[in-house]
Specification:
The structure is a single chain. The chain is mainly α and about 300 residues long. About 70% of the residues lie in helices and about 0% in strands. The protein has 13 helices and no strands.
Length: about 300
């Protein structure tokens, strides 16, 4: 009754469950299923049923799937990876590599960048960090493991493009607030305060005039803090080309912003000059506030 006791103990954490021959038989069959699918992985049966118990307890559903309906073969592989069983990592890459390649290939053109993200995903799943266990142990077996891995890869790609976005946008918002309200002559500060709302509206309209590629380049560089080198890799172009796209987008936004403010405000030349100074020094911060996260689920279009 070793398997049943291990399973019940993991569920109850009290070790008080009595022998259950029917459960022992079910668990034995599940261990045999996993072992048959991966005969080269020497995974301890008790370790596997403990993992199954954690999966059953962690579904959060009032009516969890019966154990037999879980992806037992994939769970066996995941457990073996988490236990660092010899050969498990190679078997995982064999099982999930094609789906991972497809996900990254659809989103990133650069071979080098795809390889970097792929390695990040594998490290996250199979190695973990000092204070974080390997994420593979979070796989619950309710869907194929390669599909689950694809979701992890997509999230890693999202994090790459949006890393530190929340903190960065907060810092930029504070910097813009200070730039718009302090450190200037009284007449300039008054102009900034008076026309601030119109400035924001005009900036949003100016951004809307950009073509999709230039808008995305601005998002990637100013919001998600992706380097021009990596942006070039994503589009399959030289860094200098990505730099020209970024400069062109900035220039277009600033020119359209100036036109809209002059057209709508009827401000004095001195006030327009003051606002032009704000534009020159704060345009990147303003763009960062107004642009939303990049759509990372679609590959950038060819230039």
């Amino acid at each position: 009754m070793e398997l049943a006791v291990a399973f019940q103990t993991e569920l109850s954490r009290d070790g008080g469950a009595g022998p259950d021959p029917a459960l022992e038989e079910r668990l034995s069959k599940l261990v045999a299923r996993g072992s048959s699918a991966h005969p080269d992985l020497a995974l301890d049966g008790v370790a596997f049923v403990r993992y199954l118990a954690r999966c059953a307890a962690g579904t959060g559903s009032a009516t969890p799937l019966p154990l037999e309906q879980l992806q037992i073969e994939d769970l066996y592989l995941a457990c073996a990876c988490g236990a660092c069983v010899a050969g498990a990592a190679a078997r995982f890459e064999e099982r999930c590599g094609p789906r991972l390649k497809a996900v990254l290939g659809a989103a990133v053109k650069s071979v080098d960048l795809r390889a970097e993200i792929r390695q990040r995903v594998l490290d996250l799943l199979l190695v973990g960090k000092i204070d974080t266990p390997a994420k593979i142990l979070g796989y619950g077996g309710q869907g194929p493991i390669d599909s689950w891995t694809a979701v992890v890869a997509q999230r890693q790609l999202t994090m790459l493009l949006r890393k530190d976005e929340t903190e960065q946008r907060a810092r930029e918002g504070a910097a813009l607030e200070a730039a718009l309200s302090g450190g200037a002559a009284p007449e300039v500060a008054f102009a900034k305060h008076r026309y601030r709302a119109e400035f924001e509206r005009a900036m949003a309209e100016a951004l809307s005039t950009l073509e999709e590629r230039n808008r995305l380049v601005l998002r990637l560089n100013l919001v998600s803090r992706i380097s021009l080198e990596d942006i070039g890799k994503m589009y399959g172009v030289a860094q200098s080309t990505a730099s020209r796209w970024l400069a062109s987008a900035r220039d277009q936004v600033q020119a359209e912003l100036t036109r809209l403010l002059r057209q709508r405000l009827g401000a004095s030349p001195d006030e327009i000059a003051s606002l032009a100074g704000v534009m020159a020094s704060q345009i990147d911060l303003s763009i960062s506030r107004l642009l939303g996260p990049a759509d990372i689920h679609a590959a950038p279009r060819d230039p």
